[in-house]
Specification:
single chain, alpha/beta, Phosphorylase Kinase, domain 1, 14-stranded mixed sheet, 19 helices, disordered N terminus
Length: 882
Amino acid sequence: MMKMYSMLSQIKTQVGVFTISLALFFLISCVLAQQDSLTSAVERSALLDLRSSLGLRSKDWPIKAEPCTWTGVQCRTGRVVGITVSGLRRTNRGRRNPKFEVDSLANFTSLVSFNASGFSLPGSIPDWFGLSLSSLEFLDLSSASVIGAVPESLSNLTKLKSLCLSGNDITGVLPSALGSLVELEVLDVSRNSFTGSIPSEFASLNNLTVLDLSSNFLSGTIPPGLGTLSRLNFLNLSDNSLTDTIPVQLGELSELLELDLSKNALSGGALPVELGGLSGVRKMVIGDNDLEGPLPDGLFSSLTRLEVLVLSRNRLEGALPSALWSLSKLQLLDLSRNNFAGALPRISTNGSVSGAVFNLSDNFFQGKVLENSQSTVTLTGNCLQLVPNQRSSQACRQFYEERGMAFDDFGVPEPEPDSKRKNRLIYILAGIFGGLGFIVILVVVLVVLLKRGNKATNQQGSANVGPVTDGDGLSLPKDLMYASGLGEPFTYGQICQIAGSFGEETLIKHGHSGDLFHGSLKSGTPVVIKRVDLHSFSKESYTIEMDLFSKVSHTRLIPLLGHCLEHENEKLLVYKYMPNGDLASSLHRVTNSADGKLQSLDWITRLKIAIGAAEVLAYLHHDCSPPLVHRDVQASSILLDDKFEVRLGSLSEVRAQEGDANQNVITRLLRKQPSSEQSPSALMSSPTCAYDVYCFGKVLLELVTGKLGISKSDDASTREWLDHTVRYISIFEKELVSKIVDPSLIVDEDLLDEVWAMAIVARSCLNPKSSKRPPMKYILKALENPLKVVREESSSSARLQTTSSRRSWSTVFFGSWQHSSSENATVPGHTNRESISALKQSGRAGSHGSGGIEFSSSRKRLSNEIFPEPIEMQDVERQEEH
């Protein structure tokens, strides 16, 4: 009995515990249910209003469901504390008419967070934001199509910890009142159109960990007070127009991990040694400025965590501090486009990590190279021994003489003492006179032989000796086939086998510099063979290209895989096959031979092609010495690989730009006058970069309008079409351009802005005055940032009517690169993608748009000297209308 009683007691106890647990479970569930339920009728109604004004789908915010369960809605104690519309989709009606209609937010008095990142809210931030949302701690409107100015009322949001407004078109000055938001930890207003200076009041934001003001139009100096923000981890002021020196106070940011001051106009001395106090910094980018002088010796000794250092495109000089090579975590070092000199120290194997990248190109280093095989080191454009693609000895010698420094002359031994020099001079004179006597005898013999040869020719007809080089041109060296960039030498038999004996079935077309044939290597790789018959084409049809490929290199030039020069009257060049042909054949292509249906390239691909073509032309115009002019820029010259990447072809017309004083062997070769066998367009064009720009403008119009044949023709009907079309390109009215856009293009509102921008660039390229056409480097910048071309016009067209509109247009179009108006054109050879942007060194060549080279003691030029201004363009329009 006792055992039974004990068992019953245990069962009773367990049942009691279970009952209590069950009751607690229901109680907790009720509490949680009440917490997840919206108790405020006002806020429930406000959510429904917000759902309607934003056009949100019922799938995300279903009316019949509890609002606290809606996607992106957070509730606490029956009140809405967080609303996230980022990532939500609108209904079709909502997408057609998006607006910044969020007035209902004023009813959420407990709202802590509002996130609309990436959700289109065209319109300005309402002033009541800072008056009604007093509990707000997180506000994210990045990439939300916001325009207008930032209301100063936001300074009332005293609890705000994060303010993200990046990627919009917000204008006006940065409100200094934002400096009163002392709780702010993140302030990101990058990629907007803010003007004016950085408010000194920002120095009061002591809790900031992230400050990003990049890609705006800010000017003035960097406030020294920013150095007091002791908790700052990320500081990005890049891509503005900031001036003066770097404040030494920035060295006090001991918690800083990343510092980016690039693409400004910072000047004065080199980096302040006080920046060595950034002991935790991992990334330091201060390229594209006007810094000058040597790097301080003690700068890098304490930067032991540095992984990325970019100081390119400044005017820094002197020797490199030895401490730089002992940074054990350094992964990327870019010191290119400066004036560093002296011998290069050995890149320590105990220093940089394996696989590190060092770009030391386009400086004035001399001596031999002692480099670490585990690192990738770029050394082109220096004064080094036994390294390809270096500066000329004259340029190096002049640089060192101007600074009173000794130059090793690429390893040439020092002159001998006078006594030995006199003895050697006697032997040299004896050799010279003896040699002259031998040459005289040789010339007499040659004259006799030539006379006999001429008599034989007159009696038997023209001898098959090939064309005679005219002018001051130089014949091709016999050993040119072994030069780099010319591919593999083939025998004539091999080429015939590759090209199928040049049968009609393999013929692609008859080009103006040779016939093109399909072919295939033994490996199965498809190729294109150019066959230059010297009976039908001039010798220049292949010598220009051969010399070009042997001297310059760029990934966007059509790859030359091989050649055959052994046949006296027939020269053969082997190119890589481009699967997508050229732009002329790919813009609209037949996808179904049965119904003849056309498929056009989408806008993203067209913009990609335009950028690629501008990139290689910018290389020829600005990174080659002397500047090279393509002279045959048209849709058929723009070849496309399997990924629609641009490869520029039709290189037989390339010439050095007229008016350049640096006439060396290749210059004279490239300067030879066009022969009668060449195309009419080449005969009419003069070798100026401005001519290429004009032709490129016609290519851009082909991409915009879809009309083929414009770039290859210059007849009266083409000029009439151009005159008619450019009337629809106005910086004041975007809607006009829709009348000339290719009807096969499917573009939404955002893409139409890019189409509009390309049309504006095309019109500027087609300016009748060659001196008013933009240099290709700025065209490239504009195409890479199309929204900057039309940003200010679309947001505030009324401002363009003011007297400051000319400068506003320049600021919007060029952004931070407006101060990079000149280039160093003395660096031959290959450059990577990054090196195509504007150089910032003293004594550089100016714009090549006028066909010549200009030098100026002033680094900056007014933008209207570089690019035609919109007001001027509109004046032309009005004159045409009247």
